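User: For my dataset I need records formatted as: sequence, then C-alpha cells, nothing else. Please produce one.
Assistant:
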Amino acid sequence: NEKISLTPGFEFRYDDGYYQRYPTIKRIKSGVYSQYWDATYKQYALFLQGQLKPLDILKFVGGIRFDRFIYDVSNSTADVNSGRGSSSVISPKIGLVFSPIKNFDIFANWSKSARAPYMNEVSPSSSSQKKNFDIEPANISSWDIGFNAFIFDKVQFTFDYFNTDLKREIAIINNEPVNIGNSERKGVEVETKIFILPELALYGSYSWVDAKVKNPQNPGQDKVIDVPKHIVKFGIEISKEFNRTESFYGELSYYYISGKYYYIGKATIPVKGPDFDRYNLNLKYKAGKLNYFLSTVFIPRKYSSEITWLNGSEIMINPQPRWDFNLGIKYEF
C-alpha cells in the first residue's frame, strides 16, 4: 500500500568475552591484574516502524523499539562486584517529509534511543565502588530539521541542522572509559553533488559540530573530547559503461578533519591534536570476467592521524604510512 506501511522486526545480540589489564615488562606480564572481567552480554529487541502518506506532498514516518539488556559478569579483581543484572528501554521516533514542489523536500525528525551500560558502570574493578547491575541505559534524545533539493536536474543539495542530548557520555581517557557527564551536540551538515555530464560528477560535504558537556566533573572542562569540530570531503568521480561487459570507474577525493580536543588533568584550557587530511585515488576497469583495480592513499602531514588519544599528558597518534598502494586483478568465475 503506497499510503500506509508497517514493518515489524526482532533482533538478538550475544557477546561472550573477557577484558584484562595488567603491567608488563617487554610484553611479559609483570604484576597483578588491575582489571579482569569475564562476561556475557545479551540484547533482545522488538521494533515496529511504518509510514503514512495522507497526501502526495506529505509523509509521516515513525516507529517504536523495545530493548532488553542482560549481563552476567565475573569480576576477578573485585569478586564482590560479580553478578547478573538486566535493564530495558523503550525508544520512540517520529518524522515528516513535506514536498511543496517537485524535487524539493523539507524534513524533520525526533527520536529517543539508549546506550547500554559499560562494564565498569555495572561492575567496577575496585571493591571500594559498589556494583550497579540495575543501572538504567543512558538515554539519547535527538532531533533534526533540513531540506534537500534537486536543481535543474544537475545539482543535488542537502542541508541538515541537528541537536543531540546524551546522558552519561563515556569518553576514553588514559585508556579508561570515563563518565564525563551529560552532553549536547549541535551542528550542521551540508552535502552537494553536481552532475557535469552523465558520466562525470563533483561532490562535496561539510559538517560542523559543537559538542559540550553540560555538567563536567571538573569545572571548566566543557568540551567533549575526541570530537572533531570540522569535517570536509570533496572529490570527482567518473563512470563509463562501454558495453555490457566493459566498464570504467575512477574517483579522486580529499578528506579533512580538524584536530580533536583533550584535557590534561584538571586544566580548563584544552590541548588540540593534529589536523588530519588524506587524498584517495581509486581506479577500476572491468573487461569481461577480469577486474583490474588500483587504489592509492596519500597522507601529506607527517605526524597526523585520524585516530588520536590522550595518554597522560601526551597526545598519541596511530602511525600511518604517507603512501599506500593497492594494485590487483580479480577474475570472476
